[in-house]
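COMPLEX REQUEST
Ligand: adenosine-5'-diphosphate
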Amino acid sequence: MDVKSRNHLLLNRLALERDIKTSYVMDHMITDQVLTLQEEEKVKAQATQRDRAAMLINIILKKDNNSYISFYNALLHEGYKDLAALLHDGIPSITSYDRKDSTDGVAFCVRTILCEGGVPQRPVVFVTRPELVNEIRQKLYNLRNDPGWVTVYGMAGSGKSVLTAEALRDQSLLEECFPGGVHWISVGKQDNAGLLMKLHNLCSRLDLDFTYAQRPPLNIGEAKDRLRLLMLHKYPRSLLVLDDIWDSQTLKAFDNHCKVLITSRDRSVTDHVTGRKYEVHMESGLNDEKGLEILSLFVDMKIKDMPAQADKIVRECKGSPLVLSLIGALLRDFPNRWEYYLRQLQNKQFRRIKKSSSYDYEALDEAMSISVEMLNENFKDFYKDLSILPKDVKVPTKVFCILWDMEPEEVEDMQQEFVNKSLLFCDRNGKSFHYYLHDLQLDFLIEKNREQLQIVLRMFLGHDIDDILPVLL
Ligand SMILES: Nc1ncnc2c1ncn2[C@@H]1O[C@H](COP(=O)(O)OP(=O)(O)O)[C@@H](O)[C@H]1O
Ligand SMILES: [Mg+2]
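STATUS: Structure written out below.
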């Protein structure tokens, strides 16, 4: 471990020993493969909380840079923001990270940097699209020495967010262009109040040692100034990723001479911001080969062994990765239903929901309807409740425990059913799970459940979900 990191641990040792509960912190570190189960046992064997914390720190002190950063991330994730702040300046620079690949082939340090920056993980079933990923990376290299904008644009559900995250899993790119890290913000469609909240949350996230956070900003102008100062003084060489931007007004709040990547359905959103601009067009659908690959990964068959209906399903879904994931998940559970699902997709007699103009995929409605219909009756209603989720927020298990009055384990088991069917997405860090819906899925649920929505909201005893979430998150 670097001397600097070691010193930070030693200097802040007392505060750390006093406050941390070791068990969740250790879960993160075990997931990161920097702590062994034997070491965990050794810590657990200590009599008091303080002794356990002291033992953990002793163990970390003998370890490498990766362990330091993993410990730091664990503190952040477990709500010890002020303790993490004490260690922040001791974080080793990216070039001195130990190069060691983790299980998924992504360098360890890349994984931790991206995790810290809130970059989503790969979906469980994932097909590579190397040309597009490389194109995004090449455009990002243009931001190495200068501020500017890279826009990844394309149809909803076409894979913009997934591929953008993938492009960032590249150690050289991070080292050369963004040594200050990456900060991912799910923006979505926002009114002024929502935008102000996003800016405020971003500033709090960046301002680890509370230099600027005297009080929440009063208006967007003030929030924008605060962000500008933070980026200039503390993160001059980092990348902001603004995922799913809807309008140029929102973007103006981030127009601060930074390095920014945005994803959007609208190519022209950057028309009114200043600086150099680069763009990448996300093809709307996968080619047949990649489409088939998604299905084959879901059903665990070789492409050549799949039945003839597979090609037709890919075409019927117009190659949409989102729709193919839904159908793939159904086929995994019911491997004999290729013909049935193909017919369902072709047969437009499905009870149609009113089209929201935000997307073009009839196939999505079909696929969602089939997937939801296939759920076990008990689960169907719970799934419909998810329509109260706010857009672009990853919601932790405990929110659902309150909503459904369930134990965390019950919630997680049920949510896993939805995740397995691609009806819900999950980011996992150590023992904590955060769930989110793709915005098209949310549109679908909201359209279907308009009347029911009020009833669910009442379950929160008259509170507005938007008021409750910030408290719980
Ligand atoms: N390369 C890929 N491999 C497998 N599935 C993918 C891939 N890209 C996207 N998907 C699936 O499609 C869904 C939508 O992708 P996403 O990137 O969120 O779309 P967008 O941001 O363009 O709306 C993902 O949640 C995932 O299930
Ligand atoms: Mg997206």
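REMARKS: The CA atoms of residues 26 and 59 lie 11 Å apart. The domain at 3-92 is CATH 1.10.533.10 (Death Domain, Fas).
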